[in-house]
């Protein structure tokens, strides 16, 4: 039996990890601007909401394909790109005054009228959001920008008398048109 020549080297791998480091899942920040349609009093809430983001994800990118055959075996050909489908979720800590919850409720009121249920113009409620990966020195190492984002759904928040030491968390799903990834100097 012949030996398989492997190019993987544990020492080299360790050296590269120590040199480049690995991105940590808990080192991130989000930037959620206040949409144009919300009044000026919300300008200070945007930084609070961004600060209170506990969990999110980088969005997926899916290249849709279709089977194609000219001669011989069929093969896959790209037909379109999908930038996240249903959207992306973010989970937020909720402050005692419920400002974070109210921020998203009021944002949705700029999308669909609370009294007349009419849809408003997109330029009043969409924003370009950023999800930033940070290194251990709080420097930005990667930026994912979501274009034309808005809250699509605000999940329920359970109330429970037996959960005395727990705090509220609010999960919001955002729709967006597409996203792009950037290095900080691009």
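Sequence proposed for the structure above (186 residues):
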């Amino acid at each position: 039996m012949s030996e398989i020549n492997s190019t993987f080297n544990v020492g080299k791998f360790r050296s590269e990890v120590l040199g480049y480091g690995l991105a940590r899942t808990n080192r991130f920040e989000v930037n959620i601007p206040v949409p144009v349609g919300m009044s000026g009093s919300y300008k200070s809430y945007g930084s609070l909401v961004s600060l209170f983001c506990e969990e999110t994800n980088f969005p997926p990118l899916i290249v849709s394909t279709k089977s194609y055959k000219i001669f011989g075996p069929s093969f896959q050909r790209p037909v379109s790109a999908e930038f996240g489908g249903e959207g992306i979720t973010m989970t937020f800590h909720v402050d005692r005054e419920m400002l974070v919850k109210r921020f998203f409720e009021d944002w949705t009121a700029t999308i669909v009228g609370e009294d007349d249920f009419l849809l408003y113009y997109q330029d009043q409620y969409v924003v370009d959001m950023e999800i930033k990966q940070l290194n251990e020195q709080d420097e930005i190492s990667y930026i994912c920008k979501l274009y034309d984002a808005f809250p699509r759904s605000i999940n329920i928040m359970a109330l429970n008398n037996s959960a005395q030491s727990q705090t509220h968390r609010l999960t919001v799903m955002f729709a967006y048109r597409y996203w792009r990834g950037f290095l900080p100097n691009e």
